[in-house]
């Protein structure tokens, strides 16, 4: 690629962030026409990535990189291949119509500019995620999708339900993101590589390492939470509290597929193992059935579609988990089909709500005459969702059934799960497309009529695209499906798709069985809904309620820990601090066996023995001191002894500093103790004294061992040589110590000065405290005085 092409691609990926900054201004100036201008940004991205299609279909890949944090080996790196290209086209293509749809849906809303800004921020995060090559780059964009979706879900922040849904989505997906980060760190540690394109050149490196299991589990933690796999599925339907443009964009076509994208991207590195082909089909199949059964229970159009999105994500995970090439091809086809028909149906649901005033299918009917364009788009999208001929959904179901039938020992169970799930999704698709529009006309809260072009442009184009993609089967397979399948399998893959089945085989009969079962269940929809509602009512508990209980328990635990750790007792604070210090310095050495060698007794001179003797006398004085003030003064003996050692070993500047610090410490602490009248010594029980002695010994021994281990390491003189070489030539100073403090470590020195100043201010505040007369009495006398005051008040 030329430099201009690289710069243009980076501009296309990051353009939404610039649009996010411009959107509020454009909305304020252009009012309801701003959407037409803003939609040009995702349209530009779409046409730019469409330019990669021909080259990618021929097997080419592109790595686009710019330095970001070179000292850490982190580049702003992007990878364009079949997988990232199709996702980029879906994000930008559907995003174009989402921007237009939001312009019509939120027309006149006082915060429409802010909404556009959030949408573009999310679009940029998704573009960076699906094209990210550097693992750190990918993770940053991954977390940005969680943050921006939090903003979008909680857009109507005055409603408690919106705030709860936003927080729930952030907690679940954010927790998964932390697991993913740990997985990426392990991958980097095991492979010594940070670029995805490089890792894919040696796909077995992780499988052959001893770290495959933790990496697998951590990556699955990120993918399952983001793509709402059971038992993390509950956050996605709750996110329907967001405005419909958010539902259509984030939770059908883009964000929720980020987890599926990650699994597809990592398939060459982690897939096709016994663990992969067991865990993914299991959780994917359960998610498929749970999502469809919960969808049947709903009467809200958006919730019905939301639960089928959960089911579709489960179907995709199940197919990816088989690691069968035909099933993977079916997953790619279904991903494309799902993005088109689900995005269209969500926008249809929003249009019905916007123009009729309700999304409840029990309060809708006969809208066909009032909303003919919306009805047509709903039917076309629903046909693809049902898998009817001649839509892309039909081809996807044929191929995925062919793949599940080849899935080895679990083929029958996986196929049966797919059949039942697809039949129930047919029921929902038919309900969404038929019940609001056909039948007797029902009086709705608003006088229903066809929406403006901004509202129906997206559903019409997306549903027709599903038809065109099926009619142009060969081009779809060659340009999109084949390259994406090659990226997932890690090897060249050829696709042979047919709109009309080339021969009558088992997949066709399975499809016909799915249609028959779906039609049968549709006519029993009300009974089925009542049955599932009764079962769920009897159970009475689920992951959604469990999340609230988990959060409440976490808050209670945090309060309990805070009350214990921050209970207001200095003794508790000091004890916990020193226990943590002892554990930190001793436990790693115990676990690793990294004990230092015991040094030989040095040949001290008489005056060196004298200094050690003075230090020992100071220690005994501290232990036997009758008052705190005496203990403080005695403690200063230790510091003076250390200062003398510095002086003997040729460090007069350190010695002078130590003398000053010890003198000031003793004076300041003595002043504080005098003002606070804390002269009496603590009289603690013998057991408490023993515990304190053990803790003190642990800290002292741990620090001593640490210093011994450090001094026994080979001396690295590079830093000393650097200071010696450049102190005169760069900093123009002859005193190396002063140059280090003032120039090389100027910010450290400033920080230390700030700490000293703050400490002095705190001490000054303590000294200026004026206590009441009764507070100067003994604790018992003070208690009696307070009791007398209470009696007088009574």
From TrEMBL:
It is found in: Cell membrane; Membrane. This is Multisubunit sodium/proton antiporter, MrpA subunit. Its main location: membrane. The keyword Disulfide bond does not apply. One of its GO terms (biological process) is monoatomic ion transport. The lineage of its organism: Bacteria, Pseudomonadati, Pseudomonadota, Alphaproteobacteria, Hyphomicrobiales. GO terms for cellular component: plasma membrane. Residues 614-676 form the MrpA C-terminal/MbhD domain. Keywords: Antiport, Cell membrane, Ion transport, Membrane, Transmembrane, Transmembrane helix, Transport. It comes from Roseibium suaedae.
